[in-house]
Write a structure and sequence with these properties.
This protein is an alpha+beta fold. The chain contains 11 helices and 14 strands.
């Protein structure tokens, strides 16, 4: 049974980064090598071009929160690499998704409000589908930065923001989105927006972080607190608010929000599997009166249209650089501060519980 390395850090921003770098050094080195190679092969970006892009990541992150830059600097010092290498990884969403030729499918998010859950608690879950090159270099990162809430993430080693939950009972999941308005520009890195949201003690403050973040491309966040779930579907210039339907909510990788009606959805043109994943998730959510971990797991292990299913597996028709799978499946209960995730697809890997 695969298990994830737990990296626990606390203190100042720099100290948190340095501890992260010390504990996950080999995984971080692997991820740097993987991304530099991937960008070279697929985006024709050498190290110099990547570092030039990283300077923009550092500048936009500094405007969001200078302490996040210090945390990345701490990682770089511990690993004995350049801060640009760490910054580029933290801004990797923008690099990968701003190039239409590199679009890849994946990610199904699910939310359940208390009246539709067996326990009377809020449920938040996700299959995070991504490149198989990072499957073995992911970690569970627990961060207590100064006076902020403790944040627990399933993340790629070296990346300080991702999907997860905090000890105030606020959790989020992520979905990639692509519109015809997306471009590489002045954009706060998506994954660092997630981290900043999870450092909020209040649900409304977390929403405010997303609404006010500078954004030149699209992404989706499902946000949950104690008794509430909402989906925030963001594209350049606006955000759609998608609410639970009869206490349940699902989102995949195509636009369904009313404020996105005027845009062209570029993702679904190349990855139409987002459609059936969305339908199946919603149908299964609607067909069960009271949801539990078991009923959510049943959805997340669905194999309709395998390998392009909710439980995602590599597509042998694609170049190996574009193979992806459900790298991790997550299940969270904000009221109980419960955080469970898998190391690999949920059809063949058990969910492990990680404690705050």
């Amino acid at each position: 049974m695969e298990t994830l390395q737990v990296v626990t850090v606390e203190g100042s921003s720099y100290e948190c980064g340095y501890q992260h770098g010390e504990q996950a050094k080999e995984h971080i080195k692997h991820n740097i090598e993987f991304y530099l190679g991937w960008w070279k092969r697929n985006l024709d970006m050498d190290k110099k071009a990547v570092y030039q892009y990283a300077k923009n990541v550092l500048a936009t992150t500094k405007k969001l929160d200078p302490d996040l830059v210090e945390e990345m600097r701490g990682i770089a010092d511990a690993v004995k690499t350049d801060v640009e290498a760490i910054a580029a990884m933290n801004g990797r969403y923008e690099l990968a998704w701003a190039s239409p030729a590199q679009l890849m499918g994946g990610c199904t998010s699910i939310g359940v409000t208390p009246r539709r859950s067996e326990s009377g608690n809020t449920l938040l879950a996700q299959n995070w589908d991504y490149r198989i090159g990072v499957t073995n270099s992911c970690i569970v990162l627990k961060v207590k930065r100064d006076d902020n809430p403790t944040v627990m993430l399933h993340t790629e080693a070296g990346i300080i923001g991702h999907k997860g939950m905090n000890d105030e009972g606020i959790g989020l999941t992520i979905n990639a989105m692509v519109s015809d308005r997306d471009r590489l520009g002045e954009s706060v890195p998506f994954l660092l927006v997630c981290r900043k949201m999870l450092e909020c003690s209040r649900f409304s403050d977390a929403v405010k972080v997303l609404l006010n973040a500078e954004r030149s491309l699209s992404y989706n966040i499902m946000l949950a607190g104690e008794g509430v779930v909402v989906d925030l579907e963001a594209h350049p210039g606006d955000v759609s608010f998608i609410y639970p339907n009869d206490g349940v909510l699902a989102h995949t990788n195509h636009f369904v929000g009313e404020r996105a009606q005027s845009i062209k959805d570029n993702f679904v043109l190349s990855e139409a599997n987002s459609i059936h994943r969305y339908i199946i998730a919603n149908e299964k959510l609607a067909s069960t009166d009271a949801h539990s971990f078991e009923s959510i797991k049943e959805i997340l292990t669905d194999h309709f249209d395998h390998p392009l299913s909710i439980c995602h597996h590599p597509n042998p028709e694609k170049n190996r650089d574009h193979w992806e799978e459900t790298v991790s499946s997550l299940f969270m209960v904000p009221e109980k501060r419960l955080f469970k995730c898998t190391a690999g697809p949920p059809c063949s890997n058990n969910y492990q519980t990680y404690s705050f």
